Structure formats: structure tokens, C-alpha cells
Amino acid sequence: MGPKLGILGPNMEILGIPPPPPDFLFKFLVIGSAGTGKSCLLHHFIESKFKQDSNHTIGVEFGSKVVNVGGKTVKLQIWDTAGQERFRSVTRSYYRGAAGALLVYDITSRETYNALAQWLTDARTLASPNIVIILCGNKKDLEGEREVTFLEASRFAQENELMFLETSALTGENVEEAFLKCARTILNKIESGELDPERMGSGIQYGDASLRQLRQPRGAPAPARQSCGC
Ligand code: GDP
Ligand code: MG
Question: Which of 96, 207, 212, 226 could bridge across to 22 with cysteines, CB 3.0–4.6 Å?
């Protein structure tokens, strides 16, 4: 009897057999003021999986990782501003077609918290009004220097329909959770029909065409599309 390929899992790559394509591909952004720890969050998320990869430096512009969410494999393609935010020149093309975003502020800097509303407007106008955003209060490890309370940030998140976590790219606390929570919400919205992966610019692709069946048939008529005025 030949080898049971089905139980080889991640070792398949060692045998030269390419891993199966992921079920979905989501484009993610990491946004927020300079110095809040965006690059460190991305770096920590990617590194924990690819420790042997020594090419990663802080300041990566792009990272990708396959995660398992509710039994589905999802490849997250994550874009980091790579320093553009210092010059307030984060471009429209950076935002285009993103399905999810981590909106980051630094709990030790009220200035970065005060900038959140502007980042949020940019994300919803330049990416998509449907973009799924998780607010991340980073540098949770610096409790002694805290300037923004958990409670006020939770309220901001609630008022603006964001998910919320405090994270630490230093200790790794809640880093993976932030990406996974965002991915899980997108997947739930696809399954409920609230998000349509086939809509242009949704930031979602099927890794395998057969998965198109995943979506439930949409019984209810789609809501009338609002004019974007552009
Ligand atoms: P970016 O400009 O938003 O990409 O921020 P960076 O990732 O470059 O981080 C800015 C600075 O904050 C660097 O000196 C990092 O070492 C530091 N930093 C980032 N995340 C954390 C964290 O969770 N805790 C602490 N203590 N420092 C952090
Ligand atoms: Mg950076």
C-alpha cells in the first residue's frame, strides 16, 4: 500500500509535494500612526511561524501566513505601510481591495489614540465601507506609561463598530489573536452572505474554485447599492 498522503500534513513539503491551496486569500492592512508598533506586530505574527527565515527585518512591507480558522485554511496577505505614514502619504493603492485591517495605536501615547478617527475614515473610504477592522492598543507591556485606558478605547471601538484587543508585539500577547479574530469575522460574514468574495475589490479570493459553494444561496435581495459619488 502506498503512503497515506492525507496524514502527512505539513511534512508534505519535505517530500516535495506542494501543500494544497488555501481555501481563501484575504488582503489585510496594518494602519495607524508612526511608532505604534505596526511593523513589530506584523514581524511577530510572521516570525512565530517562520523562525528559520532570517531575511525578515523590521520594516517589512509585506508578509503572508496561512492560518486555520474554523476548519478553513486562510492565507493572509498583510501589507505594512513601511514608513509611509510618517509623511502622511499612505496611498489609495495601499488601501485598495483590503478585506481586513489592524488599526493600531500605542497605549502610552494619547496622540496616536487621537489620530484613530482619521485613520478609520481613510480605511472606510479608501479601502471599503465593509472592511473588517480590529482596533489594537499596542505596547500593553508598558503598563506604567499608559495614557489611554482600556475602557475608553473599548467605548471608541463599540461606537465605531470595531473589534478591540490590547496587544504587545514585545511579549507577543494577543498578536496572533488579533489577526485570527479579524479573519474569523470575515469568514463568518462570507458564510452568512454579508460579504461577497466575488465583488470587485472585496479583498477576498478563493484559493480553490470549488469552495465557491461555501456561500449560502442568497435568498434575500441585495440592498440597493449606494452611490459613492466618485
Ligand atoms: P511602526 O512605525 O508603527 O511600524 O512601529 P515599529 O514597529 O517600528 O515600532 C516602533 C517602536 O516601538 C520600536 O522601537 C519598537 O521596538 C517599539 N515597540 C513596538 N511594539 C512594542 C510593544 O508592544 N512594546 C514595547 N515596549 N515596544 C514596542
Ligand atoms: Mg513600520
Answer: 207
- Ligand 1 atom 10, closest CA: 35
User: Over 70: is that where the pLDDT of 46 sits?
Assistant: yes
Best residue among 31, 40, 44, 108 to mutate for probing ligand 1, ranked by most atoms within 8 Å of CB? 40
pTM for the whole structure? 0.81
Q: Is 137 in the pocket of ligand 1 (CB under 6 A)?
A: no
pLDDT band for position 202 (cuts 50, 70, 90):
low
DSSP codes joined into one string, the chain: ----GGGTGGGGGTTTPPPPPPSEEEEEEEEESTTSSHHHHHHHHHHTT-TT-TT--TT-SEEEEEEEETTEEEEEEEEE-TTGGGGT---HHHHTT-SEEEEEEETT-HHHHHTHHHHHHHIIIII-TT-EEEEEEE-TT-GGG--S-HHHHHHHHHHTT-EEEE--TTT-TTHHHHHHHHHHHHHHHHHHTSS-TTSTT-SEEESSGGGGGGSPP--SPPPPPPP---
